[in-house]
Predict the 3D structure of the following.
Amino acid sequence: MSSDIESVGERVRSGRDLLMDLAFRSFEAQAVHAAASLGIADHLEGRSMGVEDLAREGDAHAPSLRRLLRALVGMGLFAEPAPGCFQATDSGRWLSSGIPGSVRDSVLVAGGPLFHLACGGLADAVRSGSPAFERIHGMGFYDYLAAHPEAGRLFHSAMAGHSDAENDAIAGAYDFRSFRRVADVGGGQGGQLAAILRAAPGLQGVLFDRSADDEAGRRLSEAGVADRCEICRGDFFEEVPRDCDAYILKRVIQDCDDRAGVRILKNCRDAAAPGGKVLVIERVVSDEDEPSPGGVADLVMMVLLPGRERTEREFRELFARAGLELTATIGTPHGQSILAGELA
């Protein structure tokens, strides 16, 4: 009997501890955001520093910085090889802006007012069924980015950096060599299209985005594919480039409710060359009620935009409404899937 009571007590304590840990995890996220804002990893790149020197370089209050670093050491992002002297760990180095694959911009976006304030409105979003972002910031998410260029620059840089880690794997997971001309619709700064063009040397590409800029041209030039790629600006809700064999939509449909998603898919279908395909690249969440990284991502979508993460069945229904047949779902190593739609 006593062992049963102890077992119940352990479950109660573990459940309580789990809830308390989850409730206060936002402070951990804000500590990481503070480290990124202060440029701590940049200052410590390749060296150790005393807290006083680090505070002077980062324009910070040394005793408060020491308290922040103590928490970050506990998270495994920094180390204290000698009392009051700090260095970045292998994990913490990813906060440095000077290394390929840096997550600094992503951390600044996730922990800054763009996301963080909106996430505080999650309960209201659940009550109302509409995104919290517009109520908190006074305008829609992408309208806000357009009205606040620095926030827009940071967000697009973060998304490009996030995509860079998966672009080659996605390009290698599907045979793009059979196509003549592909359009990356809503392709941002062109990283995914560049990877696809590198993987298929005979392919011509079109980068289509309403905010396509000089940064996209620079990235395509650095990738050595600018001579095979046309950059076009436009609104995919109105039209997309015509006569392409494939239309790539990476993390585009997830931003939309079903009606808007169908409109984009249908625009691609109507513009496609005979036998053309529409390739949606997104996370596919399970049809079963089971733990999934897509569950948390779906909450982010709930507070920011009208869209959501979808199951394969939901994608199939969306494709059908746009006159497309979902013929293949191909997983990639980074959790994204390529959903291939053919003209029905």
